[in-house]
Amino acid sequence: YDSLGNLLSTHSDVGAWVLVGDPGCGKSTVLQHFELSQARAALRAIADGAERPLLCIWQRLADYSAGSLEPRAWLDAQWTARYPHLPSLTELAERFALRFLLDGLNELKAEPGEPYRQAVRAFADWAASEGAQAFAPPLFSVRTLEYSESLSSD
């Protein structure tokens, strides 16, 4: 594939995507660049009269603490705190097809072992339920060397 956008649009039937790479290889940069390019594309689509163009929302997962809010509520709270003068994620989802770009799954704040697995499982379950319904499948990034948890919701 010549672009991340082409890969994601060609295989739209997946529950979630995972971008895996070594530390420092550019995973965060890829996600942030994709967010910017999709924002530009969404503006062009709106100008052309398109309904519900794709809008990507990047979020650093190192800000998530295990035992805090469920992933969807946490994403809502992060968005509202960061952009209090913009529409809520619920309102944006009425106007756009949202795709969450969730950076650093291995950086969730949780104790090693079962607490960490539960935090990852919460995001996997969220992706399996909401990712297939109201949103485009989310894209997670994760470091190769630190990741040992399955993203399966089974």
Helix/strand layout:
Elements: H1 4-10, E1 17-21, H2 27-47, E2 54-60, H3 71-82, H4 89-95, E3 97-103, H5 114-129, E4 136-143
Parallel strand pairs: 1-4, 2-3, 3-4
What does this structure look like?
Helix content is 41%, strand content 18%. By secondary structure, it is an alpha/beta fold. A four-stranded parallel beta sheet has the order 1-4-3-2. Helix 5 (114-129) links the parallel strand 3 (97-103) and strand 4 (136-143). The protein starts with a helix and ends in an 11-residue tail after the last strand. The relative contact order is 0.22.
β-strand number = 4
What general outline do the C-alpha atoms trace? globular
Radius of gyration (Å):
15 Å
Total of DSSP H or I helical runs spanning 4+ residues: 5
Features:
4 strands; alpha/beta; single chain; 4-stranded parallel β-sheet; 154 residues; 41% helix
In short:
The chain is α/β, with parallel strands linked by helices and 154 residues long.
